[in-house]
Specification:
There is one protein chain. The mean pLDDT is 80. The chain has 57 residues and is mostly helical. It is elongated. The longest helix has 29 residues. Helices cover 82% and strands 0% of the residues. The chain has one domain. It starts with a helix and ends with a helix. It contains 2 helices and no strands.
Length: 57
Amino acid sequence: MGIIAWIIFGLIAGIIAKLIMPGRDGGGFFLTCILGIVGAVVGAILVLGVFRLLQRE
């Protein structure tokens, strides 16, 4: 998956998280979506790094 796919996946995860846990938190909808995007991209980078390490062995 490309970086755009991970960003879209994170955006969807953020939207779903906000729908599941609505409330008056400080960040609101925008921050929840940004956190979802960042989490998806960082997770993808970590997973791809681990798979590359495993393939070298």
